[in-house]
Design brief:
It is built from 18 helices and 31 strands. The protein has 705 residues and is of the alpha/beta class. The chain folds into five domains: 106 residues, Beta-grasp domain (Ubiquitin-like (UB roll), Roll); 72 residues, Roll (Ubiquitin-like (UB roll)), CATH 3.10.20; 151 residues, 2-Layer Sandwich (Nucleotidyltransferase, domain 5), CATH 3.30.420; 189 residues, no CATH class; 137 residues, no CATH class. Helix 5 packs across helix 6. The radius of gyration is 30 Å and the shape is elongated.
Length: 705
């Protein structure tokens, strides 16, 4: 009895992944790729209609892989592939992987646009590589029209095709889409593109072939909201929108918002509606910038601190305002966007990252995803400070990671500052004070040159002949017809201003303006003073822009909260130093590391190892949006990280008081030795008597209380 011979086998090599293996003759090339773990995009799953699985056959001998590759080692184009390329002329040598069968050894190059998992790199203080593997998947199917003999429902036909073509068995249809199914199928001539979430639910149906897959990554901060609109197929950021959190009107800090919800019957509803309205407006703004409709957005990933998290989900934050600060839910939440009130695609899905603890939220988990302190070398200690109204800290390495929340207040974001404002055109973002003359130069957002390079005609004070010219320039600036003038001070500006005034000897280590100094820019009002950064002719408001004694004190309170949190985490970990410091937050990329250390916002560290990394929480949300595997990693990290309630630590008050002076009352700053010596010399040259810091601790403690 004769036996049928096994078919010959051939070696297939895929680049740039380098994956290779042996497959039987006649194996479909797309199937071979999947078998070898090479993910090639194929929305139509072999229908030869989407053109996304294009590959190139490399010709020649490749000794490293032991193959001689040739185009003839694949079956020639059939009718459908040839028809597709007639309409869409390919690059030389391109084939559709779904239309080829292997007839010999081949080496295949998969171009970036055909790779299902692409690399996206964001150039910032550090580079982030994100493997694009979203929870959203597009599936194109063609179904047969019903007949009198076969009257299976339209959705049932689609579901059967999804199971056959894509292996999506038991996939369900979001009920909100059911009334539109028949119209969509017929509008597409029995061809539809289904947007499938997590392999189990169809969130959107589009007639015919479509490539729309968009998502939002959102960081809801106490003071600001940042939103990124991303293409879920490529990972590209299509638009970014941000604004002040409208809840600020009901309380600047978290506890005031908890109280607002607790003390008013409509408190929670008011704050929830405010954030949802802001998110809808931002989504519309981002969609408009990208040239799409908001109803094309099928997923949104959100992060925020614990209070923002609860209010977003319409959960009372009352328990977060009292010991033991227990959240309603710590785990990640998947919920329909429409159930939150978001106006996106009808079936759009929302994912909220998990919380670490009652006062350390999903935004901190997102920071861990983005900055990866859990992968730091075991012999190093990393400190990450997410600077905002509610400062959050991470300290540790791959062996242990501690987290804490620090109520810094909104001063670092420009609030509670006399002339503070958000980072917008006209905000002073950079400040330099000449330690000899006390002259000031500054930069404002949306204007490249420093203020000392502005039109010389604007530098005169009180000249009646130039008054009308100055008013004309100011009117032109306000109308957008001339150079932007200073409008206020944003977070990075106030940090630099206070640090520069300290280094120039104008502010003493205990945070006072030195009473011995007389200068045109230093204006005294009783025991308090204010220092002029911008004169009226440099301001779009026609008034001086100043730093006041109260501004300095608010910065001191905020930085002391940050530093004391870091110090207590260091004590808990049993370390006396940190090896690397990362400054994160909505304006993290704009904080100057040297000025932050001069203020004492962070512990002493080699300045070469202090970096600003921008809005890491927003980046982490974007990473979770673009890679569903990172959502499970976020859940693991949230449980692995050890939360420390620093306000309940026995030494909290003591460490807070010690951290009030600039840069610190007792902790050494060897990496700032030269800077601090120069500041002391400037004070001495001006006859400023430094008051012993120890004598002021009682007064500082009273003030802090």
């Amino acid at each position: 009895m004769s036996q049928t011979a096994d078919p010959p086998t051939y070696r297939v090599v895929f680049q740039p992944s380098g994956r290779q293996g042996v497959v039987p003759a006649g194996t479909n090339l797309l199937d071979a790729a999947r078998r070898l773990g090479v993910e090639i995009e194929a929305i139509c799953s072999g229908k030869q209609t989407c053109g996304k699985c294009q590959v190139t056959v490399e010709e020649g001998s490749f000794l490293k892989h032991g193959v001689t590759s040739a185009a003839a080692h694949l079956t020639p184009p059939d009718g459908r592939e040839a028809h597709y390329f007639e309409k869409h002329p390919p690059l030389p040598g391109r084939r559709l992987a779904c239309a080829c069968e292997v007839l010999g050894d081949v080496l295949i190059s998969v171009p970036e646009e055909s790779q299902a998992r692409k690399q996206v790199v964001r150039k910032a203080a550090t580079e982030r590589a994100i493997t694009v593997d979203p929870a959203i998947r597009l599936c194109y199917v063609e179904v047969e029209p019903p007949t009198l003999e076969h009257q299976l429902g339209d959705w049932d036909r689609i579901a059967a095709e999804l199971a056959t073509r894509f292996g999506l068995h038991n996939v369900r249809l979001d009920p909100v889409l059911l009334p539109s199914v028949q119209g969509i199928v017929r509008a597409g001539d029995w061809k539809v593109t289904a947007t499938v979430w997590q392999e189990r639910e169809v969130l959107r149906l589009q007639p015919g072939y479509a490539e729309e897959a968009y998502g939002l990554a959102v960081d809801i901060g106490t003071t600001t909201i940042a939103m990124h609109l991303c293409d879920l197929r490529t990972g590209a950021v299509l638009a970014t929108a941000s604004r002040m959190n409208p809840q600020v009107a009901y309380g600047e800090d978290l506890m005031s918002r908890v109280s607002y919800c607790d003390n008013r019957a409509d408190g929670l509803a008011t704050l929830h509606d405010a954030i949802i309205a802001a998110l809808n407006e931002l989504a519309a703004e981002a969609a408009d910038e990208a040239g799409i409709n908001p109803d094309a957005i099928t997923e949104i990933v959100l992060v925020g601190n614990s209070v923002m998290h609860h209010i977003l989900l319409n959960i009372s934050p009352a328990e977060l305002g009292q010991s033991p600060f227990g959240p309603a839910i710590s785990d990640a939440v998947d919920i329909k966007a429409r159930d939150l009130g978001l106006k996106l695609a009808a079936g759009a899905q929302a994912h909220v990252l998990p919380l670490e603890a009652g006062h350390v939220g999903a935004d901190n988990v997102a920071v861990i995803l983005a900055e990866e302190p859990d992968k730091a070398p075991a012999d190093e200690v990393w400190l990450i400070v997410d600077v905002g109204t509610n400062g959050e800290l991470l300290l540790g390495n791959r062996e242990r990671l501690f987290s804490a929340s620090s109520p810094t207040g909104p001063a670092f974001e420009g609030a509670q500052i006399r002339h503070g404002m958000r980072a917008a055109p006209g905000a002073i973002e950079r400040v330099r004070v000449d330690p000899e003359t006390l002259d000031v130069r500054f930069k404002v957002i949306a204007r490249d040159e420093w203020s000392d390079a502005w039109d010389a005609g604007t530098q005169e004070h009180g000249d009646a002949a130039t008054a009308e010219a100055r008013r004309g320039r100011k009117r032109a600036a306000l109308l957008g017809q001339g150079p932007i003038l200073a409008a206020g001070i944003c977070g990075s500006g106030i940090i630099e201003a206070v640090a520069e005034l300290f280094m120039a000897g104008v502010i003493t280590p205990d945070g006072r303006f030195a009473p011995e100094i007389t200068a045109p820019r230093l204006i005294w009002q009783g025991a308090k003073a204010e220092f002029v950064l911008a004169w009226p002719h440099e301001s779009s408001t026609g008034r001086e822009i100043v730093v006041t004694s109260d501004d300095v004190r608010n910065i001191q309170l905020g930085k002391a909260a940050l530093y004391s949190g870091a110090r207590l985490l260091m004590e808990r970990m049993g370390v006396e130093r940190v090896d690397r410091v990362l400054l994160a937050g909505a304006f993290g990329s704009y904080i100057d590391a040297r000025h932050a250390m001069v203020l004492g916002m962070i512990p002493d560290c080699d300045l070469a190892r202090v970096a600003t990394v921008g809005n890491s929480a927003g980046d982490g949300a974007r990473m979770a949006l673009l890679n569903r595997g990172l959502r499970e990693e976020a859940r693991r990290l949230a449980r692995w990280t050890q939360y420390i309630g620093i306000a309940l630590e026995p030494r909290f008050q003591e460490t807070f008081v010690e951290a009030m002076p600039l840069p610190h009352a007792t902790d050494p700053y060897p990496h700032l030795a030269g800077v601090l010596a120069a500041a002391g010399a400037h004070r001495q040259a001006r006859g400023v008597a430094d008051v012993a810091l120890a004598r002021n601790r009682r007064r500082l403690a009273h003030t802090a209380g």
